[in-house]
Amino acid sequence: MLIPALKNRVVAVAALVALTSCTVTLAQTATAAPRAAELKIGLVNTEKLLRESAPAQRAFKKLEREFATRQAEVERVAKRFRDSSSAFEKEQLTLSDADRRTKQRDLEVLNRDLQRAQRELREDENLRRNEELAGLQERLQKAIQQIAEAEKFDLILQEAVYVSSRIDITDRVLKALADK
């Protein structure tokens, strides 16, 4: 057990060490403040770039063209299923049991084909969209990096809660992508 006087000295030394550490931290912060003021920071709204940039617009139009015929085919099958289903609803009371079962099986097969075609189309579209987005993001990153190097930015962020228009460089990146 420590003697009360020694215990007070230990507490005093610990307080002095803590105070010295705070002084050093304050001194370091004071010298770092002018350097922090010299930092050039920019922010890019990647969502806006993916929505409005010329390469993004071209990529999404390309995807639409690429899948237009398959989408039209799926819509034709869906219409055929709706029409057949509607016709079956109207005539099912007048059909024999065997004919009704046959038509129900045909509708079930058509429905399965429709669901499979829709699922495959969605999967293929998602796969191609992800491929296009990967290439697009690579182009966006290169454009951002070129602007950062040309204009000597120290830091460029891609997300923030609040952004001053003074540091938002999204429009510059959009312009750089439009020029390519």
Descriptive account of the structure:
With 180 residues, this protein is mainly alpha-helical. 79% of the residues lie in helices and 3% in strands. It contains five helices and two strands; from the N terminus they run H-E-H-H-H-E-H. The protein has helices at 4-37, 46-52, 54-91, 97-150, 170-179; strands spanning 41-43, 155-157. The protein has a two-stranded parallel sheet with strand order 1-2. Helix 4 (97-150) packs across helix 5. The longest helix has 54 residues, at 97-150. Mean pLDDT is 83; it is low at 5-30.
Helix-strand blueprint:
Layout: H1 4-37, E1 41-43, H2 46-52, H3 54-91, H4 97-150, E2 155-157, H5 170-179
Parallel strand pairs: 1-2
Helix pairs in contact: 2-3, 3-4, 4-5
Based on Cα principal axes, name the global outline.
rod-shaped
Distance between the termini: 77 Å
H and E order: HEHHHEH
Radius of gyration: 33 Å
Query: Which sequence of strands runs across the widest sheet?
Result: 1-2
Largest sheet: 2 strands, parallel
Q: What class do helices, strands and sheet pairing give?
A: mainly alpha
Q: Mean of the pLDDT scores?
A: 83
Count of alpha and pi helical runs: 5
The amount of beta strand, in percent, is: under 5%
Q: Any low-confidence stretches, pLDDT <50, length ≥5?
A: 5-30
